[in-house]
Amino acid sequence: MAFEFIKQKLTKQKTLSRYRQRTCIQQSKVNLSTVDNEESAQIIVDGKTYINFSSNDYLGLNNHQQINQAMQEGIDKFGLCASASSLVTGFHYAHQALEDKICQWLNQPKCLLFSSGFTANVALFQTLGQEVNGDRCHFFLDKLSHASMLDGAFASKAKVQRFAHNNTEQLAQLLSKSNSDHKLIASEGVFSMDGDQAKLTALQQLSHEHKAWLYLDDAHSIGVIGEQGQGSSSQLIASNEDSSTSHIIMATFGKAIATSGAFLACDENLHDYLINFARHYIYSTAISPALAWATIKSIELIQQQQWRRDKINELSHLLIQQLDPSITIIPSESSIHAIIIGNEQKALTISQQLKKQGIWLTPIRPPTVAEGSSRLRVTICANHNENDIKHLAKSLNEALI
Ligand SMILES: Cc1ncc(COP(=O)(O)O)c(C=O)c1O
After folding, report:
1. Does the beta carbon of 218 sit less than 6 angstroms from any atom of ligand 1?
2. Which part of the chain has CATH 3.90.1150.10?
3. Contact 319 CB / ligand 1 (< 6 Å)
4. Which residue(s) pair with 52 in the sheet?
5. How many Å lie between the centroid of ligand 1 and the Cα of residue 111?
6. Mind telling me the catalytic residues?
7. Range(s) within the chain of domains with CATH label 3.40.640.10
8. Is 262 in the pocket of ligand 1 (CB under 6 A)?
9. Which residues of the chain have pLDDT under 70?
10. How far is CA 175 from the centre of its chain?
11. What is the per-residue pLDDT for 240?
12. pLDDT value for 246
């Protein structure tokens, strides 16, 4: 029968406890009130309310009244839809204003908007990964890099090598052996499933030594790290005019920024190159100008409201303090706190147990994470409160010890 493999593959997923299903969230009770300190991180599923510990709305900005108002204003000014690709008539004033805002925020020369972080990553790697006069570009990716970075890299004409997670010694060896004049080191700033940070100083050092470009996917650190939430790239040491090295930053709007879409910040040359050659940019409708307008408002709030980052830190410390010391949690300075369970079925069972306590914690299983490392990925957000955290810790202690 045609495409018989579909059924077979789905059946296999079920036997491996890896079958994935969506959950329909009836309502998110975030920011019901316009007063910042009355936010909540609750969701309603099948008529029952849960505290959501699986959201990427790290700063609790989703549904913020001022962002919603900006969205409406954007609709009134520009319409909801861009109605064309950026190179035709889809590039509106709202897009330009958002790009300018991001450049100023991150102190980067240029910025380009994409419909998602996945697309931005694929576009960058695929468009950059060329073979020029017999010299293949050479990409070096951290083993835990996001699927979209890997997909883009492997779909390109570049040579691709992966180094063990945060193993900069191994990266140094791989770089020394490369003959390519076009090397790119790629890493996430904060790793999505572990919550730990890249070794930025070492990566930057290696990028200088080997004249390699540095690519940072800051999806999980934008908004959360840095004095104005600029992300982990704010911890890079300002380059001293060395034009042979460069860094590129990507971040999605779909997590802490709480809108949708993504940006790539880079130098003018690369910006021009992507506009001319990135098929994902050229042949795709520009992001909604109203969303771009709302995103500017969100970034303004992120810059101004340090209390949201402070709250994530305070609540994260509270969680560690309340958890039984026998529970191993991956050390993290971010919103993400991963508790490794191991087996898929066990992770599913614990997640079900937590549900009975009114806690929503989706288990993360292979292939998203390595075999044997299924986990509970707890995200602590600025709209959680102390009681939420204490309840989570108590329920985890009961389920895991
Ligand atoms: C590290 C990382 N990069 C990129 C993406 C993709 O971003 P988006 O959701 O905007 O497609 C994600 C989202 O899951 C991510 O975790």
Report:
1. no
2. 26-59+306-400
3. no
4. 360
5. 18
6. 56, 146, 188, 192, 217, 220, 255
7. 66-303
8. yes
9. 29-38, 239-245
10. 26
11. 54
12. 75
Supply the DSSP string of 363-378, one letter for each residue.
Answer: EE-TTTS-TT-EEEEE
DSSP states of 81-147: ---SBIIIII--HHHHHHHHHHHHHHT-SEEEEES-HHHHHHHHHHHH--EETTEE-EEEEETT--H
Residue 339, SS3 per DSSP: strand
Q: Looking up tokens 């809108």, which residue turns up?
A: 259
Please name the amino acid found at residue 282.
I
Can you tell me the distance from the alpha carbon of 189 to that of 232, in angstroms, rounded to the nearest whole number? 6
- CA–CA separation, 335 vs 196, rounded Å? 10
What residues contact 258, with CB distance under 8 A and at least 6 apart? 57, 59, 61, 62, 63, 64, 67, 298
Task: Give the containing element (helix H, strand E) for 362.
Answer: none
Confidence (pLDDT) at 239 = 58
Task: Copy the structure tokens of residue 194.
Answer: 């572990």
Give me the pLDDT at residue 276, please.
98
Tokens 């593959």 found at: 9
CA-based nearest residue to 233, from 214, 251, 249, 257: 249
**pLDDT at residue 30, rounded to an integer:** 60
| Correct CATH for 66-303 of 3.40.50.300, 3.30.450.40, 3.40.640.10, 3.10.310.10 | 3.40.640.10
**26-59+306-400 architecture in CATH?**
Alpha-Beta Complex (3.90)
Residue nearest to atom 9 of ligand 1 (CA): 117
Q: What is the DSSP letter of 287?
A: P
